[in-house]
Amino acid sequence: MSTTKWVIDPTHSEIGFKVKHMMFTNVSGKFDKFDASIETEGDSFENAKVHFTGQTDSINTGNADRDNHLRSGDFFDAAQFPELKFEANSFTKINEGDYELNGNLTLHGGTKPVRLAVEFGGLMKDPWGNTKAGFSITGKLNRKDWGLSWNAALETGGVLVSEEVKLVIELQFVKQ
After folding, report:
1. Which end of the chain is more exposed for a tag (fewer CB within 10 A), N or C?
2. Residue 42 burial (10 A CB sphere; 0-12, 13-18, 19+)
């Protein structure tokens, strides 16, 4: 069977996250600049090779002051660590449409394993004849595992920013 290459369609993809603020509301954000590719055997995504990179200075939460703080040395330190990377170790089918994606996330100078849940939306032809694949990916990670540990205590107890980060990712790939 031949290897099939899939490239990201960035206009129909979003690398998003949510973090609890003041322990009771979620603040959402995303990375505006990223690239990803998948290599499969034929059209089966089982055991696919997945590569992702994102530019840390492209973080966007809809608030310029917060985004600048996130780019600073308190968090991503985008000047020193301009890129985050994910390389898959395994892409395993759980049942029809559900997969588990395991790999290494490199962020802020450290590399740690992560496990992500993937919902495969299926294959579809667009109006121009391109075959596309859609994926919804979710997961959780602790930002302190990568040295993103800045926080502030609240007068009422607790902290300003949760350690847990929820990943909410929508990806569309184009078959090459």
Report:
1. N
2. exposed
Q: Look at residue 136 in the predicted model and tell me its pLDDT.
A: 97
Instruction: Output the six-digit token pair for 42.
Output: 């034929």
Among 50-54, 135-139, 164-168, the range scoring the smallest mean pLDDT is: 164-168
Structure tokens at 71: 């780019």
End-to-end CA distance of the chain: 16
Look up the CATH number of domain 3-175. 2.40.128.110
If DSSP codes are grouped into helix, strand and coil, which group holds residue 145? helix
* Amino acid found at 95: N
- What is the C-alpha R_g of the chain? 17
DSSP annotation of 58: G
Whole-prediction pTM value? 0.87
- The domain locations on the chain are 3-175
DSSP H or E stretch at residue 68: helix 64-71
